[in-house]
Design brief:
Strand order of the largest sheet: 12-10-14-13
Distance between the termini: 8 Å
Radius of gyration: 22 Å
CATH architecture of the largest domain: Alpha-Beta Complex
Helix content: 10-25%
Order of helices and strands: HEEEEEHEHHEEEEEEHEEEHH
Shape: globular
Number of helices: 7
Number of strands: 15
CATH superfamily of the largest domain: Nucleoside Triphosphate Pyrophosphohydrolase
Bound molecules: zinc ion
Largest sheet: 4 strands, mixed
């Protein structure tokens, strides 16, 4: 099985019952134990814990959190934890200059952080990305305001509410019984391959999306998709749904505009790629793509 993909396992209480209560929110903002964690579009502020393990930097609010439109992530054992966007502020530079923390890309942080911290980092970046890209009302175009302590935006003009979106993406390991189907996207360097993936369309189940995407990207007929695991992927707002499926016999053909190359790879070729030998360059270990590939290799090239 696929155990604990990176960016999963956040443990904090998201405090739904406190979010529409202004007095409760003011109490949390004034709590001397309140802290913020900071992120830019694709990086998080990280520091070393006393034991040496990397963790998100937690700092007193000190003007980094707007008290009128705060983004509350939740409660950590009762302690309020807020989010701050540090992408274009001096805060990140100052914190880095004082040795308190450093901005690390989310992909790197996913490998450095422990499980719960990695999940928290994904939540932080996904939520800030949503606010950054949804400042105006999709209904009437007016500027919106943060509400529900950061888990919604409200339009003062047409009074509609907007909630954080997560885009479902299917990602699937396809096998013909012996080999695995990998593709190289347009723009990727030669040798870099991954399993196929694509957005779930409106009016479609993830299983239907698996079959459709494999056909569209490789001209291969897949059947009987089986769900294995999921992973938040806030680049900027996806949820990866990991599947495996059998393919009917056939030679893959890259479809114009989607993939530069698609082909079958043997178990030995993928093993060589894992070890850094050969010419195949597999996706990074932070991704569920790699977890699905590694699990297939560990099972000797068979599906579950
Ligand atoms: Zn509006």
């Amino acid at each position: 099985m696929i155990e604990h993909p990176r960016f999963t396992g956040a443990t904090l209480d998201r405090a739904a019952e406190l979010r529409d209560d202004r007095h409760q929110l003011e109490r949390l903002l004034a709590d001397p134990r309140a802290r913020f964690v900071g992120a830019s579009a694709d990086a998080v502020l990280v520091t070393a814990a006393p034991g040496g393990e990397a963790m998100l930097l937690r700092r007193p609010l000190d003007g980094h959190v707007n008290p009128h439109q705060p983004i509350l992530l939740g409660l950590e054992e009762g302690r309020p934890l807020f989010a701050a966007d540090v992408s274009d502020t001096e805060a990140a530079q100052h914190l880095a200059a004082t040795g308190a923390g450093q901005l690390v890309t989310l992909r790197d942080a996913g490998m450095m952080l422990g499980r719960a911290e990695g999940g928290l980092a994904a939540y932080l970046v996904a939520l800030l990305n949503w606010h950054r890209h949804h400042r105006f009302c999709a209904n009437c175009g007016a500027a919106t305001r943060i509400s529900d302590a950061g888990l919604a935006r409200r339009c003062p003009t047409c009074r509609s509410s907007h909630f954080p979106r997560t885009d479902p993406v299917v990602i699937m390991l396809i096998s013909d019984g012996e080999r695995v189907l990998l593709g190289r996207r347009e723009g990727w360097e030669p040798g870099r391959f991954s399993i196929l993936a694509g957005f779930v369309s409106p009016g479609e189940t993830p299983e239907e999306a698996v079959v459709r995407e494999v056909c569209e990207e490789a001209g291969i007929v897949a059947h009987s998709p089986r769900y294995l695991a999921s992973q938040p992927w806030p680049f900027p707002s996806s949820l990866m749904l990991g599947y495996e499926a059998q393919a009917l016999p056939g030679e893959p053909v890259a479809q114009v505009g989607e993939m530069a190359e698609v082909r079958w790879f043997t178990l030995q070729e993928v093993r060589d790629g894992q070890g850094g030998g050969g010419t195949l360059r597999l996706p990074g270990e932070v991704s569920i793509a790699r977890a699905l590939i590694d699990a297939w290799v560990a099972r000797g090239g068979t599906l579950l």
